[in-house]
Amino acid sequence: MHKTIVSSPLAPAAIGTYSQAVVVDRIVYLSGQIGLDPASMQMVEGIDGQIVRVFENLKAVAEAAGGTLSDIVKLNVYLTDLNHFMTVNEVMACYFSEPFPARAVVGVAALPRGALIEADAVMVLAG
User: Fold this and answer.
1) Which of 13, 17, 30, 127 is packed most tightly, with the most Cβ within 10 A?
2) Long-range contacts of range 98-102, CB-CB < 8 Å, 24 or more positions apart?
3) What is the pLDDT of residues 71-95, one digit of tens each?
């Protein structure tokens, strides 16, 4: 098995022992992104800002891997408060169009750096 590691300066640098994404064949496994601003490495304010930042970070990594958000086939979203579920849907509609990826939204007790949301994804590259 050949693995290619993907990294983008337009997404936050890894804050642990992981890669931003790993490509195996045409499948790209995108690590979880939280609402960190890649320039300052500080958490953006509020749930709305964090949701947007998470999708911007995923977009940057997807593009660094040679794809786009429309190539994502599976998306996992983790929320510390499931009352933000509808807000996630509203913001997600700005980044994804039909056919939407398969998705799970899970309520969690806590996320790294006090984040309110985290999302990871699986993407399949054309070809």
Assistant:
1) 30
2) 101/72, 101/73, 101/74, 101/75, 102/73, 102/74, 102/75
3) 999 999 999 999 999 999 999 999 9
